[in-house]
Amino acid sequence: MPTKPKLGQNFLNDTQAIGKIAAALGDCSARTVVEIGPGRGAVTRELASRAGHVIAVELDRELAGRLRAEFQAERVTVVEQDVLEFDFAAASQAAGQRLMVIGNLPYYITSPILLKLGASHGVLERAVLMMQREVADRVGAEPGSRDYGLLSVTVQLYGAVEKLFTLPPGAFLPPPNVHSTVVRWHFAPRLTELQVDEVEFVRFLRMVFAQKRKTLANNLRAAGMAATGIHKAFDRVGISAQARAEALPVEALAALWRNLQAL
Asked: Which long-range contacts (CB under 8 A, 24 or more apart) does 16-23 make?
């Protein structure tokens, strides 16, 4: 069966890696696991024998049909849908528990998927995800590093991410042009700890990371904030007027947001 490059189809073909990815979820024998992009079912087969139930979300109609034909419905529910439209909250309610997530994320929509998972944090427990190595580096980046940015802060806002292992192109059919890294994301939002409103703070993060070459203050001014208020908040938090967002940990960004809200 030919692949469809426009859907980012690179199928995992490494038996040892398949087992390691499924095992990385931990004990899921009584759990519902949502698999993003099951493709030809390599990981699905492992999950079907490990998980209480699997919800396989597959956009490709032909692949979805093949999966339905292979797996018993009581073990694997195949949902033919774009994962960006999948209702994690409804699936969690139907399962009566928080969900686990696993998936080989299509390279072209990795960031939107991560942001959707973050926004669904209330119904998720943990996720094991494979993505392009460079994106995994960004997701786990520390403040001040070259890879640290909006994706790093937003993902880490919802819980710790750990890199597990990296796979070469030869582990896939067809081989992609990049290495792929598997990460595990434990959902434990820091919203209460940081004393921030989720919607407003995420909007603020997008604002301050809007232009990487601009200083934090310039990005805020470009968003329509008054210079006097910006400098007052900077002074209270102890942030330099020349600071850039990528140099600041989320704690400092949260403190700045709280002070700006108080003006």
From this structure: 17/165, 17/167, 17/171, 18/42, 18/43, 18/46, 19/46, 20/164, 20/165, 20/182, 21/46, 21/102, 21/128, 21/130, 21/182, 22/46, 22/47, 22/50, 22/102
Q: What angle do CA 106, 163, 131 make, to 5 degrees?
A: 10
Strand ranges inside the chain, DSSP E = 11-12, 32-36, 53-58, 76-80, 99-104, 124-132, 161-167, 172-173, 180-186
Which residue has tokens 């409804």?
A: 90
The overall pTM is greater than 0.70: yes
CB atoms near residue 217 (< 10 Å) = 21
pLDDT tens track for 53-66: 999 999 999 999 99
Crossing angle of helices 198-208 and 250-262, in 10° steps, is: 110
228-259: per-residue pLDDT in tens? 999 999 999 999 989 999 999 999 999 999 99
- Which residues are CB-neighbours of 45 under 8 A, at least 6 positions away? none
Q: How do the domains of the chain map onto residue ranges?
A: 5-189, 193-262
26 dihedral zone (left: phi>0; alpha: psi -120 to 50; beta)? left
- For domain 5-189, the CATH class is alpha beta
3-state secondary structure of 81: coil
**What is the CATH architecture assignment of 193-262?**
Orthogonal Bundle (1.10)
Is residue 62 within 8 Å of 80, Cβ to Cβ?
no
For the CA atoms of 134, 243, 263, 194, the dihedral, rounded to the nearest 10 degrees, stands at 40
